[in-house]
UniProtKB/TrEMBL annotation:
Keywords, alphabetical: Ribonucleoprotein, Ribosomal protein
Biased composition (Basic and acidic residues): 39-52
UniProt entry tagged with the keyword GTP-binding: no
Superkingdom as given in the UniProt entry: Bacteria
InterPro entries, per the entry: Ribosomal_bS21, Ribosomal_bS21_sf
UniProt KW Transit peptide keyword: no
Protein name per the record: Small ribosomal subunit protein bS21
């Protein structure tokens, strides 16, 4: 990943970099991998994420 610093504005470049990393899900992944997760807990987490994505998709594509 590359972030350009324009006019020596490092603060803005850091903000952009952080936003890109968050969009890629890096922070969530780091938090998840911090400790060992049992396979059963991992499976429940995957199901929870799928349900969250499904709800998001449904709310986005509802037609009234």
């Amino acid at each position: 990943m590359e972030v350009r610093v324009i006019n020596n504005n490092v603060e803005k470049a850091l903000k952009v970099a952080k936003k890109k990393l968050a969009a890629e899900g890096l922070f969530r992944e780091l938090k998840r991998r911090r400790f060992y997760e049992k396979p059963s807990v991992k499976k429940k987490g995957k199901e929870r994420e799928a349900a969250r994505r499904r709800q998001k998709w449904l709310s986005k594509n509802r037609m009234f």
